[in-house]
Amino acid sequence: MKKKQMNLMLLGVVVIFSFLFLVIIGRFLYIQATGEVHNVDLVKYGENMRETEEVVPAERGLIYDRSGMVLADNQPVYNMYAILDESYTGDSSSPLHVKDVDRTASELASVLEAKEAEIKEILSKGVEEDRYQMEFGQIGKGLSEDTYEEIKSLDLPGIYFNESLDRYYPNGLYASQVIGYTGYGGESDDQITGVYGIERRYNEELTGQNGYVNYQQDSYGDPIRNAEKNVQAPEDGNDLHLTIDQKIQSFLEDAMTTVESEYNPERIMAGVMDPDTGEVLAMSNRPTFNPNNRENIENWYNDMISSPFEPGSTMKIFTVASAIEEGVYNGQETYESGEFKINEHGRSIHDHDVDGWGTITFDEGVLRSSNVAMAELLWNYMGPDAYMDYLEAFHFDRKTGIDINGERIGRISYGGPWEQITTAYGQGSTFTPMQIMKAATSLANGGEMVKPYVVSHITDSETGKMVEETEREVVGQPISQDTTEQMKDLLGRVVTAEEGTAGAFELDQYSSFGKTGTASIPDPETGLYMNGGGDYVFSYVGMAPKDDPELLMYVAVKQPDVEYRYQGSETTSFIYNTVMENSLNYLDVTPDQKNVDQTKKQSLNDVIGQSTDEAVTTLEEKGLNVEVIGSGEQIESMWPTGNTEVVASQRVLLQTNGELTMPDMTGWTLRDALAFGRLNDLELDYLGTGFVQKQNIKPGASFESNQKLVLELSESNEETDQGNQGSEEEE
């Protein structure tokens, strides 16, 4: 009986195992026949397991200035890592992994800014934890090409690199708060993305579309030979072309740096604009920063667009313009200066000269920057409601719309009589410098107000074709042509008249007009205005030349280190005069001021193609100052160009077909020197302002196109001074 039961049990086991065997075999046969498991295609699954994808990063678009100089570029950087696993070496005759931790740490420390012990700790920890590879953290990230090459030359086993692109700003702090900078983020942690300034505002246009490469790999991670590859090329980002002009920006940066070092102000902010188009040619702030390292940043704001403050007397421009437009301004009408009250119980408004200047005309009140004149115009002539309409017409109630991230606006404090009156002369209400510049464009355009912008156009980085172009945009007309002409005349007298407050801002070679501002600063602790000698925001807004302005400039210096309030204009006038004079010369704007006699204009003969002797004789007979460049017998080019009007004693440059020789440029104006540089394709740089005193290429020496010419300028003209001394000795 037991034997029978055992046979039955054995038979059962055999049947069960046979059934299971048949099921397994059947399953294998099914899988083999269909290639599927649980509706998963094993062939495709295997291919997917072998398939890998590598990202091919797109290059971020470049940023150029208006002349084509690169302001934001891409450069290769390298991230270092170490392979620690011996299996990576395999059958190689030489080690491919880190074999000697001590030597590796010592050699790397000699190149990197890191301690040997720190590197050794990273490698040792990886070995102890049996890690396949190790990263070096910040020590090994973003290495330059020079550092990469130096480490490669050490021939250290197991040290490898991944290459990527990083943003680079060749000019450092140059226009940094306009251009901005990038960080990492976006679609992946290692993708460059704009986080500040133009980089952020136009991030979508600058960012390209990454490509990829799909291929199959073996179990060791190596590509399978002859396997098909799927390649999608990256699409690089578009390029931005700014309105910023490298020369004018350099004039501005240098002047601001000088004032910063000499007067140690709390803030400086300045901008230069083409008032006809709204193109911003230069913009800068102090403190500033280098976007390549962004260390110890003191000021995160572009103050020109992001920091509203009480502007002071520059607001009087718009108060007077509003009164003229309203038909209530009579410049010859008189008022009592010194103090103004709405009624006998009201608070007093005082002029900066508390005693005033007695009974004076409104024109004189404007020249003297009288607060009382503005109070009279607002309260007794226009009325607060009418003036508010003009504030809105000048767009002081809204952002300018400039194409830079971070623009803010202040607040029009207009709740009662006191706030309404103080707004008329620039206290109480707050505005940004860019709001003032935008409103001031109306004075240059017959009343039309234009929108400011910094991106001229966008191009395809591969083809160079235009993608988008910014056009001049008229955004309002708060005043008429007649009002602008009256304002230009009146503000011109603010600069030239004896009683005008802007005498320090008169340019040597160009007529101009403008208005000073000296704004009190509220003390956050007391709520009262500060009253120290330098506890003001000193500002100026002006244009030149007066009749047809080519440039509009605003500059403000907050709390410079000066003892008395009147010294504040030393800071703003230095920046304004230096930048405007040099910029107008650079732009070849014909001087119309002081020593230039405009009554003796004459037509300049076109002498290109003539013999050198004939050309010189023709021009010298007209009293022109002729400078021949080269030893050739025929004229190839000239400056100014032929058939244009020039003034008496104009320096005319004639370039011959012979060997180029350097003239003695002592006493030359910057304008002439810049023309010489352009005529001969020289890379010209200079220090100082005024007239040429020294040059790095000696007079008479031969030179070639694209050579660098460096000039030293001074306000004193040695050529003229020597002539004067000679006259005195003869007498």
TrEMBL record:
Catalytic activity from the UniProt record: Preferential cleavage: (Ac)2-L-Lys-D-Ala-|-D-Ala. Also transpeptidation of peptidyl-alanyl moieties that are N-acyl substituents of D-alanine
Pathway per the UniProt entry: Cell wall biogenesis; peptidoglycan biosynthesis
CDD domains reported in the protein's UniProt record: PASTA_Pbp2x-like_1, PASTA_Pbp2x-like_2
Subcellular location: Membrane
UniProtKB keywords: Membrane, Transmembrane, Transmembrane helix
InterPro entries from the UniProt entry: Beta-lactam/transpept, Beta-lactam/transpept-like, PASTA_dom, PBP_dimer, PBP_dimer_sf, PCN-bd_Tpept
Record-linked Pfam families: PASTA, PBP_dimer, Transpeptidase
All residue ranges annotated as the PASTA domain in the record: 656-715
Residue numbers spanned by region Disordered: 712-731
EC primary class: hydrolase
Transmembrane parts of this sequence: 7-30
PANTHER family cross-referenced by the UniProt entry: PENICILLIN-BINDING PROTEIN 2B, PEPTIDOGLYCAN D,D-TRANSPEPTIDASE
Protein name (record): serine-type D-Ala-D-Ala carboxypeptidase
Taxonomic lineage: Bacteria, Bacillati, Bacillota, Bacilli, Bacillales
